[in-house]
Task: structure prediction
Amino acid sequence: MPAPRPSAPRKVSADGLARLRAHLGTFNTATLRRLDETLPWHRDLTPDERSALGLIAQRALQGFITSIERPQTTTVDVLRDVFGQSPTELTRAISLHRALQLIRTIVDVVETGVPDAVSEADQSVVAEHVLHYSREIAFAIADVYARAAELRGAMDSRLEAVLLDAVLRGQEPDEIQHRATAFGWRGGDGVMVMAGSARDGATAAFLHGLRRDAARLQFELLVGVQSQRLVLVVGSVSDPDAVAEALLPWFADGPVIVGPVVDSLLEAHVSAHHALAGLGAAAAHPRAGRPARSDDLLPERALAGDTTARAALVDGVYAALADAGPSLLETVDVYTACGHSLEGTARELYVHANTVRYRLRRAAEVTGWDPQRPRDAYVLQTAVALGRLSEGAPRL
Result:
């Protein structure tokens, strides 16, 4: 159960109240002088900023007198009396720490000046009112800054969601740049996208922890939780493998796919396409690593209808083999058809086994995929099939 609200302080005599009113100017002058003497940041403010804080101090002192006249003063009353109709303006002027320093200074000035302001009979009563009012104004400030933080958090979330959508859709560079500036994106060269399953209950605390981890590792982050999918756009990536391993624990069980590193946020949609296409085809390659590069699933992506993967296999693998000479393409084709047998391939081609070995090594150098590794051989076999389909006839 919440703690009961403290009872209102005792009443100050009419004479005491009149004396406090008469000392309002003195209290205000003393407060401004104390602020200059004890808070270096106050001296560095512009004249307009100093005037705004002086007005808050004056309202706070007037609010103190009002709270004595109205013992039932609430936090809402304090907000209105001290901060006016737009209390969130205070949060744009000074930090919460400085706001509390301001109020503490006002309270100290009033407590120090009470003995000279009222009679001895009223001093203890006024001290009670000071304690009560300082409590209410502290709660009022906490409420103002908490609401401002919530508004900033909600606005940041909306800006992030809009920016992420623009990135994933590959919208116009000017549009992405504009939204990135509004969000405060500071990611340098090297951007990549990771995609995988989201954990159940990806709460605000979860997202805060993820962002804190990214900040600790010194890279920028855009986070998107789309139904059961978690998408991360990571900036300032210099070591993609290390970044992927660091962020892997934030994903739920299942495949996690890493898109290629691109130059900037403007090209991030390319990495996003590869990562999301790989995630969609990951079920066809359950032995893929975790995390897996999107290029590790080129055959599965092509089978799933990804035209980008198909083009990568045809232009980057099949064409490279064909351009290197018909013998390499023929050797890779026969080698995969013969069950990866060197001797069987040599007999089929009427060449020595060492010639087959040499051609397979050349194929690996030309394409980046080694035919003597089962997975790489499958990639090459798929590339050859797609290449032939693209030309409409065998190319041997």
Notes: DSSP finds 18 helices and five strands in the chain.
